[in-house]
Structure formats: structure tokens, C-alpha cells
Amino acid sequence: MVIESSKGNYVVMKLLGEGGFGAVYKVRDQKNPLNEYAMKVEKKLKSRRHSKLKMENHWMLSDLRTIQAQIAILKVVSQERKQSHFTVIIDRGKKAKFYFLVMELVGSSLASLKMSLPTRMFSLSTAMGASIQCLEACEDLHKYGFIHRDLKPANYACGLGEKRRIVYILDFGIARKILNSKGELKAPREFVRFKWFLKGTIRFASIACHRNVEMSAKDDCESWFYMLLDFLAPRGSTSNLFQY
């Protein structure tokens, strides 16, 4: 299958993963087969007002709509650190039945890497090094007034080749902007239903999330701490630590 775009044609190679908002495929440039990318695809739904991919592509400032603004913002993000923790957007577009977003291809998630080890856990040095990069990515996201709300090892991945030691933050499908147009914190909602969000990620959800309370930047930090515990213990042995 080939997805055509004004910037290039992308040959779908294989499915990398899928979730509630769509699927991610490994693709290659038809003209330059050595160039491989990740393509996130989301079906168009009449019940959904805005595409989640649009959220990811405009995740810095929702009031900026042009491609030029998106590029300018992403340049700022990439300059936050010498080694950015955010993947580069290659292309974007829409078809009759779906939206697509072509991004820099990354390697295995931290969750997969951990489970591939005989001990099912990272060494102390690896856990601390990876956790620091995870927190840096979270900090950069917060600088622009957004919270992730779904931090977990599966939403972080290592780069490829020369970038294999860089940890990237992924999946902004349920990220939320917490600042208004004046740069002030938005008034918290009285009740927030997160039951759908907790499916599959309950171990890393913050206490506020469990209590259906509005989340903030500190909740991302709380989820990050639970990830650190998970990195340092085999699967299943941390079950008691995640009971509140």
C-alpha cells in the first residue's frame, strides 16, 4: 500500500502498534527506500470534532494554525536541549477516510527493552539515566503549557543509529493545554472522568487521576516517579507499590 502526499509517497511496510486513537506503521519513502519513517494513522470519525493527530501536530499553541507556525514552534522545542527528546515531523496530511502524520522513526519502547532483559529490570545506572531523560522531556513539554497525562514506559522510546542513547517522548493523544491565551493557569474543572484513560495504564496514573480530579504538571511528575520504580523492579514485584 502506498500513501501519496505532496512531499512524497510512502510505502507501508508493517504495523508497529495500534491503540484507541489509531495505528502506527513503519513506512519508507518510495523514491528513497533507505529513508524509513513512522506513520501514525487515525480514522476520521463524525463524532470527533478535531483530529488527535491535529492535536499532536499543533500541540504547542492551539491558536496557531499555519504550517509555518508549526515549523517555527517545533524549531523552538528542538532547541530547548542539544539533544531533543521530541521526534521530527516529516509530513502530514489527510485522505478521504483518515488523517496521517509521518514522523522520525525511533526504536523500541522502554517497556519493551525492559521486558527483553533476562532480569526484567534495568540496572541502577540505566534506570537513572533513562529516568533523567524522561523527566527532561516532560519538563520541556510543561514549558509550553501542556501536560502529557499518559506517561508510562511504553510512551518513551530510544532513538536509532547515532541517536540510540536518546530517549524520546511519544503519543500526545490525550495531552492537555493547562495555560490560557494569557499564559495563566486555566481554572480547574470540578469533575473529570478518566475511566477510559486508565485502561491499561492504571499502574502509572496519578492519585488525582484516580480521584477524577483535574490533573496538572505535578501529576506527570508523579507518573514519572512510578516509572522509576517500575524500571528498578521485575514485572509483578512492584504491584504492592502501586496500591494507594
UniProtKB/TrEMBL annotation:
Key words, A-Z: ATP-binding, Nucleotide-binding
Signal peptide, first to last residue: none
Domain annotation Protein kinase: ranges: 10-244
SMART domains, A to Z: S_TKc
Residues where ATP binds: K40
Gene Ontology molecular function: ATP binding; protein kinase activity
Protein name: Protein kinase domain-containing protein
Organism the protein comes from: Angiostrongylus costaricensis (Nematode worm)
